[in-house]
Amino acid sequence: MSVTLTALTGTTPAIAFALFDSADNSSFAAVPGVTIAALNAVGTAVVSVGDGVIIRRYVAIATTVTGTTPSATFTAVVEKDIAARITTTDHNAKIFGREER
């Protein structure tokens, strides 16, 4: 998940993000380890999903905004990891990748 915070106003404002997923687009649960702790300045933050974590079909991003009269403008992107094509002429090379589940 990548978040670009383009504006943040208020008194001591901050915004945190968490990724949720669902198999049926109805019941959502937090994806373990995919959170961006409170950002308090304009910029970009990126977090990756750890090995072995499976993200179900539907995703949602939850925000928690704190401060006095806070306002935030941001863009959030969740992107499926697509391994780049690897070409090698070394027949002894081992190529590791992820299997889609």
Concise description?
About 0% of the residues lie in helices and about 55% in strands. It is mostly beta strands and about 100 residues long.
Tell me about this structure:
This protein has 101 residues and is mostly beta strands. The protein contains no helices and four strands.
Topology (SSEs and partners):
Blueprint: E1 2-22, E2 29-39, E3 43-46, E4 58-77
Antiparallel strand pairs: 1-2, 1-3, 1-4
Order of helices and strands: EEEE
Strand % is over 45%
- Number of discrete helical segments: 0
**Level of helix content?**
under 10%
Gyration radius (Cα, Å) is: 18 Å
Distance between the termini: 19 Å
For the residues shown, what is the average pLDDT?
Answer: 80
Number of structural units classed as domains: 1
Could you tell me the number of beta strands? 4
Kindly name the structural category.
mainly beta
Q: What composes the largest sheet?
A: 4 strands, antiparallel
Ranges with pLDDT <50 over ≥5 residues? 82-101
* Morphology call: elongated
Keywords:
disordered C terminus, single chain, 4-stranded antiparallel sheet, mainly beta
